[in-house]
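User: I'm curious whether this sequence folds into something compact or stays loose and floppy. Could you predict its structure so I can see for myself?
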Amino acid sequence: MVFENTRLTIQDCKVALQILEEDCIDQATWRVRWVGAICLLRTVGFVLVDEGRQNSAHQQYIREAYTRWNEDKLRYEIYWQFIKAERDLVLKEYKSSVFSGEHVNLTVVPQPLMPPNTELGSSVHQLETDIYRPILSSFRQGDDVRDVYDDAIKWWESEVDRIEAALL
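Assistant: Here's the prediction. I'll summarize afterward.
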């Protein structure tokens, strides 16, 4: 394994995800967990670059990866619109694109093909945010942030795999 510290950082992101999945007593605890998790997720890239500095061939492939990500920001939007953007928002403004209230209102609307005798109308239910923490920004709006975080971990793994495969 070429990028040991990068892989270790990715493993720690997985631990952070497990912690984000746990029940949370209050919003302050959630916020601290989220700040740590999103910063750790962005740290993967910094560690990758640092490990690349130790070998010029490695550095070249990492530079090529960053060039690829820069040239096609739409294809690599998980990096630009989530990993980097959310980390920047948290660290530079101490804000987040993740819903931070204690309850999420969920509206249930019956399907139009309901039987005619059905008296069900739309109903609103409150979900605890430990069950569902939606993203409020345009990138993957409405998705649970933990699902997106998991996708970001998988993206990092595939990118590191791709760089390591190019070195062989």
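Summary: The chain has a mean pLDDT of 89. The helical segments are 4-21, 27-52, 56-71, 77-93, 145-167.
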